[in-house]
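Handout, page 2. Input:
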Amino acid sequence: MPAESLCAMMDHAGVDVAVLQNDHVYGDLNPYFAEAVSAFPDRFVGLIQVDETQADREDQIARLHEGVRTGLRGLFYKPSAFFRVDFRESFDAPRFSSFWSEVEGLKLPTYWDLVPIPGNTKADYLDQLGRFAQWSERYPEIPCLMVQTIPTRLFFSDGRLEIPPLFARLVEERQILLELTLPIVWGRWYEHPYAELIPLIRTLYDAFGSEALVWGSDIPNVERYCTYRQSRDYLPRTCPFLNESDVRAILGENLRRFFRIDGGPPSCP
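Output:
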């Protein structure tokens, strides 16, 4: 999608700034994101992507520095990429310590796409969460955001969201942000404005407050279920317990602090 097209969609949906991220299946887009950020510095925040399975190599660490030099503000990290090595290793392997030290030194906020691997069970997710907890103890200065919060398809049923105790502790102690990207997950089963998801959102809100929640859309893929604008407006429409301050925090202010937008982009050593 050309950057100009996304800007037009953002204008129509009432979105001021978009965070650019992508799965590996869409390609290596670091330079493409950097071009978009350069052309529209007030509209886009770009994330860096590396080969997670080779992140200790000098060329991958160089990608971090090149990304920062070209205006990208954070890292998008996908542990499931270790399928390439049959999950013989993981992000917490000792050989990746040099990579994570660079991320920490660059003060790169990191989006974690933490999913249940190698299977798709609660036990698999809790194993990954335990690994993340140990990793987090070693790198406490890296700001973290959990993409799509937790695997809600596993932990939400019969109108009740189960929050694993370790997850709750990590969010509170590490001040981790949780991304609400619910239409892309639940749009196959529910219609906008997703009233069925009120208990899920309310549970997260009651547990962590609006200061831990951020909105995400997964545009353009979300348009298979609803429009870009609908992916944003379902929150205030569906959740009357969210006051104006809560909505402002979730729809932008929390991410503004996460990326230190007011302070300008991080500088590359």
